[in-house]
Amino acid sequence: MAPASVTTASGATWQEVAADRQRHRDATLDQLCPPLPKLLTDDIPLNTTSIPGSLLTEEELGITGTAVEDLAAKIASGEWSSTTVVNAFLRRAAMAQKLVNCVTEILPERALKRAAELNAYLATHKKPMGPLHGVPISVKEHVGMKGLDLNAGFVGWVGNVADEDALILRCLWEAGAVFYVRTTQPQTLMHLETSNNLYGTTINPYNSTLTSGGSSGGEGALLGLRGSVLGIGTDIGGSIRSPAANNGVFGFKPTSLRLPVEGLAVTMAGAEHIRPTPGPLSTSVEGLRLFTKAILDRKPWLRDPTLVPLGWRDVDGEPESRGRKLRVAVVWDDGVVRPHPPVVRALADVVEKLRASEAVEVVEWKPWRHDLAWEIIAKLYFCDGGAEEAAAIDASGEPWRPLSKWIIRDNPHVRAHTIPSLWKAIQERDAYKAKYAELWNANATTADDNNTSEVDVILCPAGPGVAPKLETARYWGYTSQWNLLDYPAVVFPVGGDAISVEKDGDGQQAEGAQSHAYPEDYTPLSEADAYNWALWKEHGAAGYRDAPVSLQLVGRRYEDEKLLRALENLLDAAGLPRSC
Amino acid sequence: MAPASVTTASGATWQEVAADRQRHRDATLDQLCPPLPKLLTDDIPLNTTSIPGSLLTEEELGITGTAVEDLAAKIASGEWSSTTVVNAFLRRAAMAQKLVNCVTEILPERALKRAAELNAYLATHKKPMGPLHGVPISVKEHVGMKGLDLNAGFVGWVGNVADEDALILRCLWEAGAVFYVRTTQPQTLMHLETSNNLYGTTINPYNSTLTSGGSSGGEGALLGLRGSVLGIGTDIGGSIRSPAANNGVFGFKPTSLRLPVEGLAVTMAGAEHIRPTPGPLSTSVEGLRLFTKAILDRKPWLRDPTLVPLGWRDVDGEPESRGRKLRVAVVWDDGVVRPHPPVVRALADVVEKLRASEAVEVVEWKPWRHDLAWEIIAKLYFCDGGAEEAAAIDASGEPWRPLSKWIIRDNPHVRAHTIPSLWKAIQERDAYKAKYAELWNANATTADDNNTSEVDVILCPAGPGVAPKLETARYWGYTSQWNLLDYPAVVFPVGGDAISVEKDGDGQQAEGAQSHAYPEDYTPLSEADAYNWALWKEHGAAGYRDAPVSLQLVGRRYEDEKLLRALENLLDAAGLPRSC
Fold it and tell me: Which residue, among B485, B482, B473, B467, has the nearest Cα to B548 in the 3D structure?
């Protein structure tokens, strides 16, 4: 595949570059054989999630409806060939593109060549190449793929070509994976939605008036439509978790410096003050684990020495092996923004089930100054005052997207740091982290000698509501909090419990939803809360119809393995499924 | 103890502050009972190491001559009381002060109170409080100690008082340690020698014309005189290893982010581009291990969340358990500065013994651009162009020490960074680290399938010579290399193999030393090498008489435990002792 030749560097306008990228994307879709059927009539329906199912074969439906772990088993046993599996996902991903605009290109040639190699390997060796043998993995565009364009959502970057696969891809490749599709991301990678001037806006498959989330919003939407069951996102403020939550799938942000970022296209390379991390989105908890373990088993720290050499640690039986219940601390709201009623309702429902469970003990977590946490992290996101972001946007003359402007130009905490002001901000960051560590320690040590009151995980909202209306995803606090602290965090769907007018009411006056609705005399906690409240008053439950409801579970720093185990225990205790 | 009242903040001159600090130090020495005998006649002899031995009791000699691990065992068994042990070390430390000027204060009151507590604990519980029960530990001054002055070697900082013990002290305290003496450090903490305007210069006990090294040079000299057998240093460019090497003891710089720096007084707080780490100096390898394990066993990462949560990992039998020899890669010189003949000779002697050993395989390591490594790290040491260092010095009007000027003002790589130039320098750092990781990986994978050629450790000089003449310790490359890479590194004495004119010759012409001497037609490798060569030409072996000769062993990042085990195996194979 030749690199993009229509670039602003070669004199094209940004509109011409965008049109060319879209033509390229569509051309990759046209390689499918047989061609895709026509999916849509003139109007896009509100909820498109059932459309692929009505057009795929039974076999394709079976394959794309299978959780990663079962998929891997069936390919390894030879029940399904890699080629059959890859073809099914290529077709469903292409359909997802037509429905929600979540793909930058599909890779039929590469993926089918790889599948053929894997088939041959299995035939020859009578064993799979690795734990992900034949598993198709979708990849956010800014994760470099050898020989392919690498634009990170900036029009001016079109024409950059990756010299080799990003290290995370090399690790997954060695474990047997197949890469078959690349997905959209927003301009700057710093929105909790996905829109850029190359490909437009990625919308939510459950409700086309809502965002798929961001920045890994192409992944989120693709998984929501089951055009993928395992994808790679990246997260520095919620960019894996927001799209996973918005699309009703699982999304895991590990502690940083475990999974490699080498080979990702980003602005501000060298900035290590707040670290991004890659991580998986999946339709199952086991998918998150398989992905993470497969990479760690490749010892990526030997190739990327910025990483911490912590292999996958088995935590089977934790904390039950210590003869006590899983202790879950609940954050109802963060003291800055009260979540919309459906989130409050879902949290209450889950907590009620956990309280009734033998396996879990529920306590309250008192959030400590999450407003300060936002100030600190926002001060460290763009330490050059946003100069590199601005340069990357302005290089092509493309317009600033509203949420780019919101997070950089309208953000009162952004400044062009000097070295002394940077060091001061880093000290504030570390002081905040130390304070939060004290909170965990206090919980651990004020109890009896057996430490039975040690908090294992924090259960909290995944955001200030369900998937937001387009261009309204302004509040990052529920996810960025855990980036500042560098705690692992995972979001999970609350079953089939999507928003419905019946359950969540339509604005404040709705019947049967009083206990989770805003009080009559509600006073906003902050400016951000007033904005969030106004959104609910304006749109109500009807405005968010069918949106999945998700929650978030958070562990202590580097306790990634324990967190995933705790999530399974929590899901079991609450009667929720481990896959969706 | 009241905080210092004579400070520049309260109007005193820097000379008055210094005089007051020295009076305070001497007053602590005067608390000893019985008082110290007169140690010196009018002239300080070249080598003072035998003096304490001639004035201490047999019991005091026995105690201070015992390795940490045996000391701990004898205290735990009740053979020696904590009080007896502490008293012996207090007296010997005070003597060391008189001989080489390595102490800022001794702490008889605190230490004896603590010893009494420990005695009572042992009597009551019939078991020690922890693995360091009663072990006296000497502490570099800038490691904060509750209620005591904390000046970090700056006159203008006198009057700062620590609010609480540094976290590393709290961990050691919980393990049963006794803190009894605080030791000197240079102005800025950024010299490989130890001199400041508060206390003057700390000299080398083996040869008073040489430096004790730095920045933990008070520790080094104190251990050299056995006024301590276990001390805390800190290292960002060689500050543990230079003084350990110069004084013929063991010194260990762990990988950073394992041992806590919380509570240390430093300039440039918030700078995380090159990280300092604390670590032990000891008269035995086992002392290094006991210290490190005792701290890690306290899980310091729960209190300082910047740390990586890696507990002590047992590596008994590594690499023998894998059925192969320890593979040691030798760096003869770093391609920038050729070490002085005694170092070349010692390295050759050790390598010859290792080659003859069944347990070790020796290969060559080709250093990759250590000159570039110095440029990169020097560019990241003082990212504000040295502004905070200058402010700390200039606050009192004290003069710049020559080596402060050398490392900051005369250093061509120091600059006041902008954010973009900082990010660029960080990228250069990470690229260099990645390149060095490739070297290890290449060594590991170009061999046969069993990976038997994987290099375990690198053996190299600890510096460009033995302890340098005062104010000549300008070349950091042999130690700073491993700070840039963040590899664990340990220095060890080469037995009783100190410099002698007979072995090392006196300049180039000496008999019997040709093979290690500079060639007749030597051409310096660099400007730094020309300087180093000139020192040898000027002073020769006679100028460095009696200086201990030490070498350095380096492990891969985070392989701290393996490194210490490898050192023991190497010492055994070379017929060198594990304690000194």
Answer: B467
